[in-house]
Design a protein that fits this description.
alpha/beta, elongated, Rossmann fold, about 35% helix
Length: about 100
Amino acid sequence: MIPQKLPGATVDYNNAQGSADTQLSQAQADLAQGDCMLVVAPVDSVASAQIVAAAKVQNVPVISYDRLIESRDLAYYVSFNNETVGKIQGQYIADHYKEHKQYL
């Protein structure tokens, strides 16, 4: 459990270790506990549509993070600019590992 940031709010965190079945089970358990929103970094964008369907039954919005869940009922999709992230990472390597220039 992550420490509370808002009075009365809690954050449940799960890691499915790359298993779509585990991710679905974890989401179902969160819904059974009464979670009011799910943020999912889907292991499988098609299989994760089952999470969205289960959440919809309970009027719980699902936010897909980093990979799009293939469902028309998805509330939101959030990602980042992969090209910019790659440039920043490359610049860091160039700036901090100059002694290995033969690899750059």
